[in-house]
Amino acid sequence: MNDEKPDETKKKAKRSMRDAYAALGSEFGQIKEDGKKDRQEVIRNGITRIESEKKDQISASRLVSDQISDLRKEAKMSSSVGTSGQISQPRIFGKNDYKEALARELLVIGHEELKEAGGTITLSGLLELFKTTRPNWDTDIKQIENALKHLEKQEIIPKMQPLEKSENDTLVFFKPIELSNDLQTLLKFAPRDGENISYFMSVLGWKKERILIALDALIQHGLAILDEETSWIYFPALSK
Q: What pTM did the predictor assign?
């Protein structure tokens, strides 16, 4: 029979929690120290180990999660905590959890890694980028599409737009950019390697002034770049 008073039990529990977090803090310090030898690789290995061994403690503390997120960025990893190790597609159970995790990881890409492209990319380009930067994920274009539709349904990202000139590809927007019909049309008909204004005048039948207005808006959003020397227009979101 346990004769301890409730207050003493609570104090022991708090001490135990403090000790656990102190131990974690010590491990973070060791990771940083070892990282001087081969910093990024050591940090990656350390994060993978801590995330697999201390999952419950990490999820219970925002401070610890933020520390790991900062270390992840320093090691050139995704800032999403808890995405170390092999992440496989579930066969029966856990499909919703997998979709939610994948959606969160896609948002990290859209907001942190696609800044120069205005938070916009083609679906095929997104799949290629994901496979390159997240080799520990077992996923495919169908799963990514499902996760994006999930974000659309929740109105976290705007609706995807089909592209006319990109082999039935789709343009994905991670930021809620309000695009007029002219801007959407210009993007839909834009070749992956870019083009000049004359091309758009010929294809769309628009006057030069109308194209320049739409182009200026796309440049402001980071969705287009105009090379003033060659008059060539590049579209970062469409390039692979």
A: 0.54
